Amino acid sequence: MLDSIGGSSLSSLGYSNSGNGGENASTAEKLQQNNAEQERKAAAAVSRQAERSASRAEQLQKQAEQLESRGTNRVREAGLGSRLDITV
């Protein structure tokens, strides 16, 4: 029989493993199903958040590459200006 659910013992909830076993087993099963459903929902939420974080990281990586490319192009442009006389 299930002795502990979510850190709470069934005896502390007013249930014991003796006496009316059918009702206690049903209640314990319901509690276990409830906990399993909550765990599934929490896992789904964590999974969604991880997907969003990964997507955001990809976006930031692309932005960093674009900024780096812009910086490289500007350095090249500055190099041309120092080699040529472009006064008007």
TrEMBL record:
| Compositional bias segments (type: Low complexity) | 1-18, 57-66
User: Looking at the record, which segments are called Disordered?
Assistant: 1-88
The source's domain of life comes to: Bacteria
Q: Where is the composition biased (Polar residues)?
A: 23-36
The protein here is known as Uncharacterized protein
Q: Which organism is it from?
A: Roseibium litorale
